[in-house]
Here is the input.
Amino acid sequence: MRSNVIYRIFIFIRLFSTCRLQCFYVCRGQPYEIVCEIVSSPPQNNAKVAVLGASGGIGQPLSLLLKNSPLVGELSLFDIAHTPGVAADLSHIETRAHVTGYMGPDQLDAALKGCNVVVIPAGVPRKPGMTRDDLFNTNATIVATLADAVARNCPEAMICIIANPVNSTIPITSEVMKKYGVYNPNRVFGVTTLDIVRANAFVAELKGLDPARVNVPVIGGHAGKTIIPLISQATPKVEFPADQLSALTARIQDAGTEVVKAKAGAGSATLSMAYAGARFTFSVLDAMNGKDGVVECAYVRSEETECKYFSTPLLLGKHGIEKNLGLGKLSAFEENLVADAIGELKGSIKKGEDFVANMK
Ligand SMILES: NC(=O)c1ccc[n+]([C@@H]2O[C@H](COP(=O)([O-])OP(=O)(O)OC[C@H]3O[C@@H](n4cnc5c(N)ncnc54)[C@H](O)[C@@H]3O)[C@@H](O)[C@H]2O)c1
Here is the structure.
């Protein structure tokens, strides 16, 4: 008698879970077993993500990274210039995200309709000698205008603000959302990920570690002394003598200026920021898709210190911030850095809030 033949049929469907269906049937007197395996592939969803400021130094590479992700179904690119070209260019890439370009204020509402995540790198960058706060006058208006459009068109979206000064643009965004009665503090993020990325890279370099395995939480805000790396909480655990720790902390705080100087008038960090912005957006999307244990630091509405807004590690979930993980145990050195940052942060927050209160 012929031995039983087992036919295995593999069906590849993009799903989160793997399941296995088994059935037997008899054909011409012989029992056959059919095994269907539904094999999981990387998670994806159909998120619609908007990039506002998509033609800029950050906007273009950020849009490229988002276009390359299976997490993005639709990519909506808005800017006041050049978006038709950027969108046409990206749309030729053989990935599934459908790309549409929108240009000018008349097309802003259309760009935002139905968006799940809005990332905002619109605004002017620093030139040598400028602080992030020097950008306030120009960028405050840009961010307030864009936040206004988000409030009207996709109030439920996760809002990720890259535009500087982040310490003020988050209070601005929050106040604009409040004006429309749609403010959800769990969904408004100041993207500080570049500070974490830099801290990881610098610590790995000094200790000869694989940077992909290093994680240094960075708390506080996103400007100068308000950037507070928590080297004592780094994983893997690392230790530095006091003088090296001070120099490393100062380098992380001034890393943006290091790039501004090196670019000599041609702008600030764009490629590393695009990487960091994409990393943060993917974490938000992963968490929205139900992935457990997604933690990122971001500058958000906070009760952790006396500042209304403060960056700490956050557990992200389907609806944005699920839990603020707080500052954790600080070394005496880090406690001093926090104490030193509070005054400047409070000032930047008030400046943002006052700007919206005085807006016509
Ligand atoms: N959060 C961070 O860690 C971080 C890091 C680096 C830079 N930044 C900030 O990101 C911002 C952008 O930097 P960049 O280097 O891409 O600048 P860029 O000048 O190269 O690009 C800015 C883009 O914004 C567009 N824009 C201006 N006004 C707009 C509006 N009203 N609506 C839509 N788009 C508008 C411009 O046309 C331009 O394409 C700056 O404010 C910079 O300081 C933040």
Observations:
- The longest strand covers residues 30-39.
- Residues 47-191 form a domain with the Rossmann fold fold (CATH 3.40.50.720).
- The CA atoms of residues 18 and 39 lie 5 Å apart.
